[in-house]
């Protein structure tokens, strides 16, 4: 036990070094509990993960994760992203650690992350295990539809300590989706939609995809629904379906994109061509599990059901600001 020192006035005091030590200890204790703590959570694939209470060095292992972190206003925490993390534009300034299906473990480790956020559809279990072998916590998300995308936004918001911001963002997404639902209920028409995502071969979308869900929510009939996520078709098969709405989206851009549209436009008897209802759209707002899926939904309902829109109702939808090339 450290005893006090008797002063001339008879009062007792502790040695200076002891008071300094006590103060420093309390400061460190507070800092540790406030900033360096950790907690154990269950991620979206059912794994128990110990994560920092206040992560500051995050590596996003998929473009969709990058978008969500930006949407939450926490981009200053991002120290690494994957290839094609191109939205918003500021994301392209962040160091790239490979593609989300072929990550560079050495680059990730060199960034000294205190948290990696992975996605089940893309990041392999082996990759996650390698990162964890370096004592890097990995939280995995597994969005399958629009509702679970909203859940993912909330979960990432909790991880980053911005739950209220995440909740506000999701409330906005939900309200906009409900407006589309109410609008679609005004008509019984369900135009036949062919959605092309691959050029050679021709590839479309099955039932268990984000695009199928958005087509359905927007009041369309997906002509290629079924158990195969990304079915392939011949030109003859597509023509036989006689789509009323033809939508083309691809990572290809420029002249290639326009050429695909021009090739289909030669088939004048196709209902979509006859009625000038063939469109080129940005793939990223339709197949990335991010808040922008609602932008894609608003865009699709305007493409599939233009008759439902007056100038007044159309102005309610952000999708109207996206370029749709007819």
From TrEMBL:
Residues 57-308 form the Fe/B12 periplasmic-binding domain. It holds the Pfam family Peripla_BP_2. It comes from the Bacteria. The keyword Transmembrane helix does not apply. InterPro entries: ABC_Transporter_SBP, ABC_transptr_periplasmic_BD, Vit_B12_bind_prot. CDD domains: BtuF (cd01144). The keyword Metal-binding does not apply. One of its GO terms (biological process) is cellular response to iron ion. Keywords: Signal. This is Fe/B12 periplasmic-binding domain-containing protein. It comes from uncultured Desulfobacterium sp.
